[in-house]
Specification:
Autophagy-related protein 16 domain-containing protein, 2 helices, mainly alpha
Length: about 130
């Protein structure tokens, strides 16, 4: 009987020690997870700031692109007007055919490089900010 109680007490002590070890491991694991969680929160905050900065930069670039499109459209309109004027002037070198049109002349000019000396506003100047 006494030996049984001693053996039972030893079993209980061993069981309680295992449970204490499990709780300690769980507590350590929880502390580790809290540390990782805090680190992830800091990283998320840093990424939010970076995202906001990138969105701001993108907004600026989209504004620049819109300005370039507007300038391009204006240049194409001017080019079309020039083509119309050139087609109305009699040519010394060739007779104008019946099929000539401002649109055809504009297409002809679009295949040619632009001489920026004559169209300075079309030139991209990275230092100008526009």
């Amino acid at each position: 009987p006494t030996e049984d109680r001693v053996s039972g007490a030893r079993d209980t002590i061993a069981r309680l020690e295992r449970r204490i070890n499990q709780v300690d491991k769980s507590r350590k694991s929880r502390q580790d997870l809290e540390t990782v969680r805090a680190s992830l929160r800091q990283e998320r905050a840093r990424l939010v700031v970076q995202k906001d900065d990138l969105l701001s930069q993108l907004d600026g670039r989209l504004g620049e692109i819109a300005n370039f499109w507007s300038e391009r459209d204006q240049a194409q309109e001017r080019l079309s007007n020039i083509a119309s004027l050139l087609l109305t002037v009699p040519s010394q070198k060739r007779a104008r055919s019946e099929s000539s049109s401002p649109a055809q002349f504009t297409r002809y000019l679009q295949d040619r490089p632009i001489d920026f000396r004559f169209f300075p506003r079309l030139r991209f100047d990275p230092g100008s900010g526009t």
